Every structure is written in structure tokens, then in C-alpha cells.
Amino acid sequence: MKTMKMTVMTLLIAATFAISSCGGGKDQPATPINADQFEKLNQNKDNAGKRFSLTGYPYLNSDVTVRSDMEIAVSLYSEPKGKGDYIGSIDLGYKDNKNGMYIPEKFTAEDLQVFDNEGNSLGINDKITISFEMDLDTKRPPRTGIKKLEKDENGNPKMVEQQPTYYGDGPSDIKIEKAK
């Protein structure tokens, strides 16, 4: 009987350890990155499954048609109200009361509400940190031959071939917090 209790106890401890060591999800520490690093996350397969974070002010810089159960790209800028440097855009769930966003059907940019991990409403004047897990499909070969319009050293537009990029959903498992 004593060996059976020891065996059961050992199995319970092993199972607890296995479950706790599986992906940390939203509680896993995120690596802070800047706009240039964010743009290149899908070029390195080693980024798959890792958590990263961006910090800035949320803003909608274009007109949006609002429908339930959709995601809307919310941009982050270095200064409030869409001013300063553009950092990046992340899709947030519309009407998600935690880690999501809300705008009324008819809105101005000032009406944007972003909800943090606890459901607190934050606006375009609140600096936020969005952490996320990078979802990349590394089982498929990366896409190649993608070209992007950039400006040369004289400010003239030119087409530049981009680095190979991996397929995937990009940022997922999002957590929003008010920046400290």
C-alpha cells in the first residue's frame, strides 16, 4: 500500500510539473521590441511561440466599418492622438471587454476604447503595452519574392525585395496593460 501511495504521489507531482512547464501564455514575460523589430518578427522562425511587447498610444487612423465578432487593426504611436512615430498595428477583438477594443458605429478617433487585461477602459491619451505571442507556421517554407515600395536615399520611390517571411497569424494571445 505504501508503494502505491508513493507511485500515485510521484505521478501527481510529475503531471503538475508537466502542466506548469507548458507554454506560459499571457503570464510568460514578453521581450519589449521597437517598430523595426516588430516589422521583422515574421522573418525569423525562432520567433515562433515567443512573447513580445510593443508600447505606445492606441489610435485608429482610418475609417472602419464596424461589425460584431471581428478584429480591427489598432495602431500604436509614440505620442497621443496618432502623432509621433508609427510603431505598428495589432488586431484587437471588437467588443472584447478584456484585451480588446470598442468604437461606436459612428465615431471619431477620440471614441476609441481599448480594454486592458482586467477590463479597464483606456483611450487614445493612455500609453499602453500590448504583449503577444508570435504565431508563425514554421513547418511551411517562408514566402519569397515579396516586394515593398520604399524611398531611396534621395527620397525617390523604388521597389525593394523583402526578406523571406513565414506564414502564420502573427500576434496572438494578446494581453493589454496600461504602460508603467
Gist of the model:
Helices cover 14% and strands 40% of the residues. It has 180 residues and is mostly beta strands.
Description:
This protein has 180 residues and is mostly beta strands. The chain contains two helices and eleven strands. The protein has helices spanning 2-21, 35-39, and strands at 31-32, 51-59, 71-79, 83-94, 100-102, 113-115, 121-122, 128-137, 147-151, 157-161, 167-178. The strands form two sheets. Strands 1, 2, 3, 4, 5, 6, 7, 8 and 11 form a nine-stranded mixed β-sheet that branches. Strands 9-10 form a two-stranded antiparallel ribbon.
Class inferred from helices and paired strands: mainly beta
Radius of gyration, taken over Cα atoms and rounded to an integer in Å: 21 Å
Number of strands: 11
Helix coverage percent of residues? 10-25%
**Could you say which overall geometry the principal axes of the C-alpha atoms support?**
globular
In round numbers, the mean pLDDT is: 84
Largest sheet: 9 strands, mixed
Distance between the termini: 55 Å
Q: Given the structure, what is the number of helices?
A: 2
> In terms of per-residue confidence, which ranges show pLDDT below 50 for 5 or more consecutive residues?
4-23
Which H/E pattern describes the elements? HEHEEEEEEEEEE
How much of the sequence is in beta strands?
Answer: 35-45%
